[in-house]
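From the shared-data thread, chain only:
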Amino acid sequence: MPYWEWLKADRRTVLALYGRSRHGDHVDYPNWPALSALKIESVLDAFIGEWPKLELKSNNINEDSDEENAYRYLTEVVWSLSVDDPDASLPVIERLLVDRRYISMQKDLKSIRAAQIRKKALRNFEPPSPSKVVGMLDKCEVVTVEGLRALLIDELLAYQADLNGSETTSKDVFYKNFAKGERIVEVPAALRVADRLRLLLKSQGITVEPEKQMKAATRCDITCTKMIDNVRKLLVVEVKGQWHKELYTAAVAQLHERYSIHPDAEQQGVYLVLWFGPDEKVAGLKNTAITSAHELKKCIQAQMPTELRALVDVFVLDVSKV
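Structure, as tokens:
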């Protein structure tokens, strides 16, 4: 760091960086390294205010002024964020997006962010074999964790439709006394959902387990497991009642950081929230603003990191009396 402090004291350092990193000059500087996301952030932080914003026209370092070349480098170096690992680059991109010094780069940063989120989601993806493709198309078989997620959301949507209108499926199972509105707590509620999913998914070779033991003696509320070519695919599900104080943080602090890190889960999961109506507390506080399951879902998603939204589905199951 002392060396960087010395280098950034001179605004012209950015020109040296540009001269060594621009396309084609790696022949002259074969050992010049690719900058990590944190180093790119440090460069931008040090020099973005030292060189004025300009309208760039040509792309010739020999003809352009120092001001043009410096500003060109600062606008181009952000694209190197796409080279680093998404786990390293996405936090940096999020910080840059909320910093008004980089407002002119927002379009590029958002494009890079989208590409990195996709790269992260597909990190462990393996193209299915021809036999898997045939099974998926002809028999609607699940062959990936993404497929498990999509199937589970479809089954939850069907369950919601039954809860809303079927003569044989009732919301009573989520209440100790339905008439008085006395609900059950999270664990038995999660068991009700797990039992429904178990019956529906068993025929597809998917095992549904409630309260599954995970790493460090933690327990995941629901897991869905399928063996594909002797490789286990695991979908983790965290269940929370709307009243839970960790309602808005559980998708990250529990589902993502404790459960979806399992290698078979490929960092994916489903966050299932139970909605008992506007009269029930929300995140431990008296509810004064949220009137429906749909509104609660939007609030939860709004507080999730952008990069997590491609990996975790939020589903709010409406079990309210009305």
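Strands lie at 175-177, 182-183, 207-213, 219-228, 231-241, 269-275, 312-318.
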